[in-house]
């Protein structure tokens, strides 16, 4: 933070040119009327009669008086042994002036930099809120929400690859290809690495397959005992490790130095973050949204790594995510410690502080005047931010800390102990144009919530277990508690989807762990969008996430030409073939079957039934890429028809 350092001459002018008889509150008398503007000057302090008399005056000889809110006063004694003189300007004073003053002769740019370091003025309207007991009831007509329809382009998507490619499209793949090749040249100009789009797709397919099939080490996927054919036949181990070592997403040459005010700590991932946020937010939002934190667990060394003791994995990168109740992420933001930097805030957006600004940024693409509802916890809740959302017809509800409710007479901790289980108290007020309802409800512990559209009524009943009576009891539950519990779990649901099957590849590069996490996030979003499309079409969508990942990975690794294993693997013995009474029958995905690339008939020693629907013939020919048996003779051409 930039601060102006004042020399002693400027400090003297401030001290002796100020009218100390005027009180800070603008009243006629000072805070202590009995003082009657009398100023007590210590006897040992020689103050100059002339402002220019600088030699005989020592700033550190002035005693410092500090007064606390409790009324106690602490006087710091003067320091007569100060070395602060005008002849020695290099000496650092032991007392520093923390108030930053601006000089009228300073440049405009310097004044602009000082504006960020000045303390914020108190919001008088917020500090003077008046609360009263009452109930906030919003008419149902004001909360009416019209469910948005999906575009025809989304309704036409069918396969896992279609939904995944909607987010991870060719534009992003080309960007990754170009930046990876550039980074390989920057590392070693004598050994540049050339990639193709199909190779990047196969690399992603192996990563997604690895999220379902877990082995101790990455190299075990190519081992003799633990190897998986669909992986080691797709790409060699050396090629996979080479791509992994040079995979890059942004040009290092354009990254600003850390001391630059426009330095972006997430520069290495910025194209991926911006692209995915744009694609995720292109899906129309549902009525209820929730905002919460997510942790990308890692042991990588990075100054952006956070410690969250309430999470199963304590250390990792923190993400702020906006989701719906189904777990679809509309927008995300990776914590980097630069949340309050003005370069990440639009000129039309107010500054409500680091936590509330996260809500403002993540709700930029939420449609206004559509009666959306957003839920968050006490880290984000603040009355000015909720009023800002209310002016956009976005209702909000969240838990709150008592110190963020000025003058609110809600019970404190001692009064909460006297409340019975199921009791609730509601106070209402209005801040600018927004109605505010604050409710305290006692369950096992007291919880405080604030809302702009509902209060404690109408109440409902809920069942709780009483430890003393050793039986279930029925207690009252306010409406906003029921609303919060019903709609707040979107991010937790997303965490559970990612946690079941996630890419566990380790890397010394901190941004690779985040890249794998964003791939998992994209896969889960594509699966959630698939279920939403099927629900609109009223079709069956009973496909589990593990099967979704397997189908998507199988489609990606079939991109382009299939690699033939060049090393010898022991063939399966007769006993192994006999023991396999129910061999797995592979069915290629539509994209692989109809890509018209690298499909060749192969004559085998085994005769099997043709896999073409409605064909009951037997054949010795199979497709080398699809690995299915198909008829190909003068009477039937199932091989050609199957790949059309």
From TrEMBL:
InterPro entries: PGBD (IPR029526). The lineage of its organism: Eukaryota, Metazoa, Ecdysozoa, Arthropoda, Hexapoda. Residues 159-527 form the PiggyBac transposable element-derived protein domain. Pfam families: DDE_Tnp_1_7 (PF13843). Residues 79-123 are annotated as: Disordered. This is PiggyBac transposable element-derived protein 2-like isoform X2. It comes from the Eukaryota. Residues 79-94 have a biased composition (Polar residues). PANTHER family: DDE_TNP_1_7 DOMAIN-CONTAINING PROTEIN, PIGGYBAC TRANSPOSABLE ELEMENT-DERIVED PROTEIN 3-LIKE. Residues 102-116 have a biased composition (Low complexity).
């Amino acid at each position: 933070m930039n601060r102006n350092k004042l020399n002693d001459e400027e400090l003297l002018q401030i001290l002796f040119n100020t009218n100390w008889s005027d009180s800070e509150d603008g009243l006629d008398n000072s805070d202590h009327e009995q003082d009657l503007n009398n100023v007590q000057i210590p006897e040992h302090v020689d103050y100059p009669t002339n402002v220019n008399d600088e030699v005989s005056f020592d700033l550190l000889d002035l005693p410092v008086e500090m007064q606390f809110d409790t009324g106690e006063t602490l006087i710091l004694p003067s320091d007569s042994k100060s070395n602060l003189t005008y002849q020695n300007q290099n000496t650092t004073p032991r007392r520093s002036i923390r108030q930053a003053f601006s000089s009228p002769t300073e440049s405009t740019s310097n004044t602009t930099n000082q504006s960020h370091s000045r303390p914020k003025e108190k919001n008088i309207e917020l500090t003077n809120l008046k609360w009263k007991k009452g109930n906030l009831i919003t008419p149902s007509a004001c909360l009416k929400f019209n469910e948005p329809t999906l575009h025809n382009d989304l309704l036409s998507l069918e396969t896992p690859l279609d939904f995944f490619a909607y987010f991870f499209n060719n534009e992003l793949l080309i960007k990754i290809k170009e930046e990876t090749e550039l980074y390989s040249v920057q590392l070693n100009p004598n050994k540049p690495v050339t990639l193709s789009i199909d190779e990047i797709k196969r690399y992603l397919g192996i990563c997604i397959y690895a999220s379902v099939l877990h082995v101790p080490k990455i190299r075990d996927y190519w081992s003799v005992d633990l190897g998986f054919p669909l992986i080691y036949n797709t790409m060699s181990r050396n090629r996979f490790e080479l791509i992994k070592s040079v995979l890059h997403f942004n040009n290092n040459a354009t990254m600003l130095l850390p001391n630059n005010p426009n330095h972006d700590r997430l520069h290495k991932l910025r194209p991926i973050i911006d692209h995915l946020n744009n694609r995720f937010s292109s899906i129309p939002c549902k009525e209820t949204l929730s905002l919460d934190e997510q942790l990308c667990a890692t042991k990588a060394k990075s100054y952006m790594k956070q410690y969250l003791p309430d999470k199963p994995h304590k250390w990792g990168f923190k993400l702020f995510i906006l989701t719906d109740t189904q777990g679809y992420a509309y927008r995300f933001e990776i914590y980097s410690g630069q949340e309050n930097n003005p370069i990440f805030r639009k000129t039309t957006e107010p500054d409500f502080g680091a936590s509330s600004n996260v809500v403002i940024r993540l709700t930029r693409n939420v449609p206004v005047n559509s009666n959306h509802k957003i839920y968050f916890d006490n880290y984000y809740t603040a009355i000015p931010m909720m009023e800002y959302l209310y002016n956009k017809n976005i209702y909000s509800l969240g838990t709150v800390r008592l110190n963020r409710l000025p003058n609110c007479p809600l019970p404190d901790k001692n009064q909460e102990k006297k409340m019975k289980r199921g009791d609730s108290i509601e106070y209402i007020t209005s801040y600018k144009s927004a109605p505010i309802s604050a409710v305290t409800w006692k369950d096992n512990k007291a919880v405080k919530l604030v809302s702009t559209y509902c209060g404690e009524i109408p109440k409902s009943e809920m069942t709780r277990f009483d430890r003393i009576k050793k039986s279930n009891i029925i207690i009252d539950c306010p409406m906003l508690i029921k609303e919060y519990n019903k709609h707040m779990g979107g991010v937790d649901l997303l965490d559970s989807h990612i946690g079941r099957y996630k890419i566990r590849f380790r890397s010394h590069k901190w941004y690779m762990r985040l890249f794998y996490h964003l791939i998992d996030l994209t896969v889960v979003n594509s699966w959630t969008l698939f279920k939403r499309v099927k629900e609109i079409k009223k079709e069956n969508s009973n496909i589990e996430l593990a099967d979704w990942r397997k189908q998507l990975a199988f489609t990606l690794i079939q991109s382009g030409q299939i690699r033939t294993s060049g090393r010898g693997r022991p063939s399966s013995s007769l006993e192994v073939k006999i023991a396999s009474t129910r061999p797995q029958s592979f069915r290629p995905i539509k994209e692989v079957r109809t890509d018209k690339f690298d499909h060749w008939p192969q004559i085998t020693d085994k005769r099997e039934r043709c896999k073409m629907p409605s064909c009951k013939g037997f054949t010795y020919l199979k497709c080398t890429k699809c690995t299915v048996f198909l008829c190909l003779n003068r009477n039937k051409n199932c091989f050609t028809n199957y790949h059309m």
